[in-house]
Automatic annotation (TrEMBL):
The keyword Cytoplasm applies. Keywords: Cell cycle, Cell division, Coiled coil, Cytoplasm, Cytoskeleton, Microtubule, Mitosis. Belongs to the HAUS1 family. GO terms for cellular component: cytosol; HAUS complex; microtubule; spindle. The lineage of its organism: Eukaryota, Metazoa, Chordata, Craniata, Vertebrata. It is found in: Cytoplasm, Cytoskeleton, Spindle. GO terms for biological process: cell division; centrosome cycle; spindle assembly. InterPro entries: HAUS1. Residues 291-312 are annotated as: Disordered. This is HAUS augmin-like complex, subunit 1. PANTHER family: HAUS AUGMIN-LIKE COMPLEX SUBUNIT 1 (PTHR31570:SF1). Its main location: cytoplasm. Pfam families: HAUS1 (PF25762).
Length: 312
């Protein structure tokens, strides 16, 4: 712990230099963290010092090579760095910079051409990828436009659905309220019906006047009316005949008011005619409780007709 704290203090003093070291809480955790930072800093400083030494060595080597090349140029061609013009020196500097950018081993044409070809190939690949990206971008823009339109439509549908849901919710609440009211009313009516039925049972009501009995009677009346329809059709040919008195009030034999009692039976045709006339009068001219009557003049006319037929 003391050794770590001493090393941390020395490292902080080296880092801050003449400035005072900021105060910090001295505990095991803080000292361990600062100790790790000090070790990492020392390792980086050591690596940096090695790189600096390496760069210094390469610089001395490059300077020696440059002096050697200058001697070669001076001895072989008679050129020196001081004798070159400024444009020539600029061109040489640009050539060296290009060689460094291209990463070639020398400035010969055979070194520059493959590097330039490689750069040209890379440029073509980049242009090709750019065209592909542009096509994809245009397709994405079209899809984005259609997506935005679809989003607008969906938003409108959502708004309409929300409004319709609000309306339907209000209607559902109203129907629930109505259903509660109807349920309560139905229970009330059921209770009243039970009370009414109990009262009717206590009063010994005739079952023939109940609703069910009346409905049944109405059905029977309807059936009878349906049965009467074909009978009415059968009676249509006899509708023009005049009504007569029913023969049920006197004998089926007719007595003439002449000398002596002359009687004769009524023919079967007359009986059929009488029955048809009775039916006609019963259905269309008189009530069921009222008897079918004729005047005395009608009876005398009937007797005269019978006498004339007898004489004939």
């Amino acid at each position: 712990m003391c050794e770590k704290l001493r090393k941390v203090n020395s490292w902080l003093g080296a880092v801050f230099g003449d400035q005072p070291v900021p105060p910090f809480e001295v505990n095991t955790r803080t000292v361990d963290i600062l100790y790790q930072m000090a070790q990492s800093s020392e390792a980086r400083c050591s690596d940096t010092a090695l790189l600096i030494e390496d760069y210094k060595q390469k610089t001395s080597e490059y300077q020696a090579d440059a002096a050697h090349f200058e001697d070669v140029l001076l001895q072989g061609v008679g050129l020196s760095g001081a004798s070159l013009s400024k444009p020539t020196a600029d061109y040489l500097s640009a050539l060296v910079d290009n060689a460094m950018v291209l990463g070639v081993k020398d400035t010969s044409l055979t070194s520059f051409m493959p590097a330039i070809n490689n750069l040209t190939g890379d440029l073509l690949e980049v242009e090709k990828s750019n065209r592909k990206l542009e096509r994809e971008l245009r397709a994405l823009q079209k899809r984005l436009g259609s997506t935005l339109v679809l989003r607008g439509n969906l938003q409108e549908d959502i708004d309409k659905t929300t409004k319709s849901q609000a309306v339907e919710s209000a209607k559902a609440e109203e129907r629930l309220l109505n259903m509660d009211f109807v349920t309560a009313k139905a229970q009330e009516l059921s209770i009243r019906q039970q009370r009414s039925e109990a009262q009717l049972v206590s009063r010994n009501m005739d079952k023939s006047i109940t609703h069910q009995a009346i409905v049944q009677l109405s059905e029977e009346v309807g059936a009878l009316q349906n049965e009467i329809i074909p009978l009415k059709k059968k009676l249509e040919p006899y509708m023009d005949l005049s009504p007569v008195r029913s023969f049920s009030s006197f004998s089926d034999f007719i007595t003439f008011p002449t000398k002596g009692a002359i009687t004769f039976p009524v023919s079967s045709f007359e009986k059929k005619k009488k029955n048809l006339l009775i039916l006609k009068c019963a259905f269309f001219h008189s009530k069921p409780s009222e008897p079918i009557s004729c005047t005395s003049e009608d009876r005398r006319s009937k007797k005269r007709t019978s006498v004339s037929r007898f004489q004939t």
